[in-house]
């Protein structure tokens, strides 16, 4: 299976299956000298993990990272960083009944058509378990970006089914299992999810992710546009069916006078563009939004066929997320951080010598490749 690597100068290759002995990644191109300790992976891995609330899959993985290479005496050496996480709580018998059936809405069918073979246990390689390694790799990217540019990437759940936030407070986001920005609504989400879980059905969700502190200049036209690479990276997350940058599809009803972000000596007057023009960062907040489809592993019977093409009914048992979007916030952050890290290094490689080009709009950090 190819296409398991991502990025040009900061490359991440992930490997492993949901019910195999381990999952892992190799990160190549990380600048040397970055301090990194095993304990630093904990917070983001816990934010993404299953089993942290009754609203996600009940699988309890330890998610203990082992650093196999690329770090010596607590610092990156510039050589490939290999990270490994052993799977400790796979329950493969849940999958024995569906190993010869295709779940409607699942990658079961397309993997079978493409490869002629599949590992049905826990979804194998198509499982959201794979996203663990993206989050682990992004811990390194987030740290480097923060240290060198003051970049901060964060996200929140911006829609659960039909429910949207009635207020917005970043401080609320990390205080509830949904990454929801309005504390008062958390009980509403709790009862919505409890009813959904009892019904056996699943629901979609929307996650917004933003990066503050990105200097102007990151992104490579024409085929390596920052928004193009962000869209591809975010779309590569399991279950993602839609990606928007800035106002996204909202732009269809806007007039040019409304959409353009006017500029004053004090800075931009709005940010409909999502901090990206011509595929290059403007120095404003970079904003993106993704929609995740409802999970396809359901205990409610659905019509399908088996691998012989016979009509049958499929029922999925096991420990599935009724809304996979609930755990997607750290994953979306991870993909944005990985794209930004790669683009930062690419910008430094090609344009590190480009001097200041006045005027620099206030609020924009200087794009000097981190050297001055
Ligand atoms: C997943 C199905 C479930 C989830 C898994 C993602 O696997 P299992 O049936 O083995 O419990 O628990 O999520 C994780 C293990 C994880 O770490 O994200 C799927 O089909 O995507």
From TrEMBL:
GO molecular function, one term: chorismate synthase activity
Keyword check for Amino-acid biosynthesis: yes
EC numbers for this chain: 4.2.3.5
A Pfam match: Chorismate_synt
Superkingdom of the source species: Bacteria
Pathway: Metabolic intermediate biosynthesis; chorismate biosynthesis; chorismate from D-erythrose 4-phosphate and phosphoenolpyruvate: step 7/7
Function: This reaction introduces a second double bond into the aromatic ring system.
Family: Belongs to the chorismate synthase family.
Name recorded for this polypeptide: Chorismate synthase
Organism expressing this protein natively: Pseudoxanthomonas sacheonensis
Gene name tied to this protein: aroC
């Amino acid at each position: 299976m190819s296409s398991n690597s991502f990025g040009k100068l900061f490359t991440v290759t992930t490997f492993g299956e949901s019910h195999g002995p381990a999952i892992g990644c190799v990160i190549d191109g990380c600048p040397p000298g970055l301090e990194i300790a095993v304990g630093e992976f904990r917070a983001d891995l816990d934010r993404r993990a299953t089993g942290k609330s009754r609203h996600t899959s009940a699988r309890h993985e330890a998610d203990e990272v082992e650093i196999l290479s690329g770090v010596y005496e607590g610092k990156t050496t510039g050589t490939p960083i290999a990270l490994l996480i052993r799977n400790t709580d796979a329950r493969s018998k849940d999958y024995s009944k569906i190993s010869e059936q295709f779940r409607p809405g699942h990658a079961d069918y397309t993997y079978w058509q493409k490869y002629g073979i599949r590992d049905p246990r826990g979804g194998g390689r198509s499982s959201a378990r794979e996203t663990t390694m993206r989050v682990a790799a992004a811990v390194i990217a987030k740290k480097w970006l923060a240290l060198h540019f003051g970049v901060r990437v964060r996200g929140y759940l911006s829609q659960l089914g039909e429910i949207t936030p009635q207020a917005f407070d970043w401080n609320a986001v990390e205080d509830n299992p949904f990454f929801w920005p309005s504390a008062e609504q958390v009980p509403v989400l709790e009862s919505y999810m409890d009813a959904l879980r009892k019904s056996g059905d699943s629901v979609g969700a929307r996650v917004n992710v933003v990066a503050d502190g990105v200097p102007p200049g990151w992104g490579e036209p024409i085929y390596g546009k920052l928004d193009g690479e962000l869209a591809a990276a975010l779309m590569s997350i399991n279950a993602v069916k839609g990606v928007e940058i800035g106002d996204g599809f909202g732009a269809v009803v806007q007039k040019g006078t409304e959409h353009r972000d006017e500029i004053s000596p004090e800075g931009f007057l709005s940010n409909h563009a999502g901090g990206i023009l011509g595929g290059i960062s403007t120095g404003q907040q970079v904003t993106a939004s993704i929609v995740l489809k409802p999970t396809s592993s359901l205990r409610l019977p659905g019509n399908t066929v088996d691998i012989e093409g016979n009509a049958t009914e499929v029922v999925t048992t096991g420990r599935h997320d009724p809304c996979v979007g609930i755990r997607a916030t750290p994953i979306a952050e991870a993909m944005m951080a990985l794209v930004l890290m790669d683009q930062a290094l690419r910008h430094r490689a090609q344009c590190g010598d480009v001097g200041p080009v006045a005027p620099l709009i206030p609020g924009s950090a200087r794009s000097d490749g981190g050297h001055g």
